[in-house]
Design brief:
The protein is built from seven helices and 16 strands. It is α+β, with helices and mostly antiparallel strands. Keywords: Amino-acid biosynthesis, Aminotransferase, Branched-chain amino acid biosynthesis, Pyridoxal phosphate, Transferase.
C-alpha cells in the first residue's frame, strides 16, 4: 500500500511509521475494535469526503454495540478526519477510522483498558478492480446475529470474511458471497450485493447478516432518482444464477458488476448496473447537484 505522511492518534498527528500499538493491546488478542472505511473524491470544488457523517454515525453505533466508550464527539471526529486528510495532501483517498480497546490489562473483560482512536488516510484504488468480478459461493457461512452483533462493523467478526476471501482467491475467483445459517444470501466479504431481474433491484436485508451498508443505501437512493425500484428481501443462491445482472457495492469497491457466479456467466455490465455506476460516479465527484449534501469538503 502507498504510505501517507501522517496518522491521527488520540488528538495528535504522528508520523506514519510511528503510529504503533503495544503487543499486548486488548484488541489484538480479542478483536475488541470497530472501524469505518470512507472515501475522499476529487470534485470541481476540491477534495470531498463522501457521506462522512453517516460513516461516523455508524462508527458511534458500533462502539455502543460492543461496549466501547468513545472519548470523542462527532464534531471532534469530523474535524480530526478533515485535518488528517488535509495534512496528507490527498486529492482523493481512502480513510480508515479505528476505535479499539488498548493496552492496560489482559483477560477477556479487561475493562481497565483505555479506548484508543486513530484515523489514517492513503491512496487506494477500487478494491475489486474495474473489470467484471468473478464471484463464488463460499463454504463458510456468514456470522449469525445471535452469536455476534452483525450490525456492528467490528474487527473480530471479520475473520469470517478473511476466511471466505482467501478461499475464493485460492480457487481462482475474485470475491466470495456468503450465505447465512438458513441458506439465504447475506453479502460478500466486504461489500453488499444486488441482483437485477426484470428491472427490479433486490438486496439482502440486515436480518440476513449483511452489514447495513452506506453504499448500499446510496445505490437505493440513486435508483429512486433514476425511477428504478429497489427492495430489501431474502435472496436464494439460485436467485444469483437467474439474475439478469448482479453487482456488488461498498466504499472500497464502489459499484462493480459481477461477470460470473460459480462459473455461471453473466457478462455485463448490464444496463441497470451501468446507469447506477454512472450516477454514483457523478454523485461522488460532485457533478450532480442533487447529492451535494453527501460531500464534506476537505479544508485545511
Amino acid at each position: 500500500m502507498e504510505e501517507a505522511e501522517w496518522v491521527w492518534m488520540d488528538g495528535t498527528l504522528v508520523p506514519w511509521g510511528e503510529a504503533k500499538v503495544h503487543v499486548l493491546t486488548h484488541a489484538l488478542h480479542y478483536g475488541t475494535a470497530v472501524f469505518e472505511g470512507t472515501r475522499v473524491f476529487a470534485t470541481p470544488r476540491g477534495p470531498a469526503a463522501f457521506r462522512l457523517d453517516e460513516h461516523l454515525e455508524r462508527l458511534v453505533r458500533s462502539t455502543r454495540m460492543i461496549g466501547l466508550t468513545l472519548p470523542y464527539t462527532m464534531d471532534e471526529l469530523r474535524a480530526a478526519t478533515l485535518a488528517t486528510v488535509a495534512a496528507n495532501g490527498h486529492p482523493a483517498c481512502y480513510i480508515r477510522h479505528l476505535v479499539h480497546r488498548g493496552y492496560g490489562e489482559m483477560g477477556i473483560a479487561a475493562r481497565g483498558c483505555p479506548t484508543v482512536v486513530s484515523i489514517a488516510s492513503w491512496s487506494w484504488g477500487p478494491l475489486l478492480g474495474t473489470g467484471g468480478v468473478r464471484l463464488m459461493t463460499s463454504s463458510w457461512r456468514r456470522n449469525d446475529h445471535t452469536v455476534v452483533p452483525t450490525a456492528a462493523k467490528a474487527t473480530g467478526p471479520y475473520l469470517n470474511s478473511v476466511m471466505a476471501k482467501n478461499e475464493a482467491l485460492d480457487a481462482g475467483y475474485d470475491e466470495a458471497v456468503l450465505l447465512n445459517a438458513a441458506g439465504y444470501v447475506s453479502e460478500c466479504t466486504g461489500a453488499n450485493i444486488f441482483v437485477v431481474r426484470d428491472g427490479l433491484l433486490a438486496t439482502p436485508p440486515s436480518s440476513a447478516g449483511a452489514l447495513d451498508g452506506i453504499t448500499q443505501d446510496t445505490v437505493e437512493r440513486l435508483a429512486a432518482g433514476l425511477g428504478l425500484r429497489a427492495e430489501r428481501r431474502e435472496l436464494l443462491r439460485s436467485d444469483l444464477y437467474v439474475a439478469d445482472e448482479v453487482f456488488v457495492c461498498g466504499t472500497g469497491a464502489g459499484i462493480a458488476h459481477v461477470s460470473s457466479v460459480d462459473r455461471r456467466e453473466l457478462g455485463g455490465p448490464g444496463p441497470v448496473t451501468a446507469k447506477l455506476a454512472d450516477a454514483y460516479d457523478a454523485a461522488v465527484h460532485g457533478r450532480d447537484d442533487r447529492y451535494r449534501s453527501w460531500l464534506t469538503p476537505i479544508t485545511a
